[in-house]
Amino acid sequence: DAFWQAGRLEQALYAYERVLELDPTDRDALGAKEEYLTRTQKFDALLAFIVERAEAAPHDAERADLLARAASLAEKQLDDPPRAIGLWERRVALEKSDLQAYRALTDLYELVGDLAGVARALEGQLGLTKAGNERLELLRRLGDHFAHRMGDDARAEQCWKDILALSPETTPDGELQLAVIIAESKYIDAANLATKRKESQKQLRDTVRRINDAIFGDRDCSAPYGPRVGSEGMNGFPWMAFSSSSRMFRPCFRQVEM
Description:
Layout: H1 2-5, H2 9-22, H3 27-39, H4 43-56, H5 60-76, H6 81-94, H7 99-112, H8 115-128, H9 132-150, H10 153-166, E1 169-170, E2 176-181, H11 193-216, E3 236-243, E4 249-255
Antiparallel strand pairs: 1-2, 2-3, 3-4
Helix pairs in contact: 2-3, 4-5, 5-6, 6-7, 7-8, 8-9, 9-10
């Protein structure tokens, strides 16, 4: 302590390390060594020190806290996303209720371009999010991610169904209305645009019918399955509206620039 107060940090560190050889759990010595490494910006050594402490921690709660600190250090001070990802993953393996960890993992997996990792991290967030608006936003993000970035239509459709159950809107006449968006993307040559456009429109209408049948079965589904408003095209995104009185979906297309 005398060396530390006198500003003789190297000598103080040497003394504290001797203390830690005798008692690896001495709080004063541990704190002083961490402060020394922080002050001198020896972040690689600091990261190794915190990870070493985490591995030696007797309780999961303390280990999880140290791993979170190490992950944040790797991300912000060392600019090492892969190492940060590994540490955050170890953190959530210990405590799966850490929303901060899943948010950090989402950003880091985005940074390194790991689409499957992004999906897992978003699903981790979703599992811990109960608030309606926040949950809807996560479902929309997951649906877009599965549909447009991973090409996983089945999982995207499940997200839309979950949104459908959570997002009723009130129409001007006071009825509740549910809506779901179906997205599709294709790469074709210009010569086949007209033909493929018609095929795409038919496929999207068939999807609307299947969802309608799955939800309502043999109920009245007599509404026309043609576009009601907007402009159709290969990059159109149809949305379906279900009114509590009509018991049917009405599909229409909106033009979206790609």
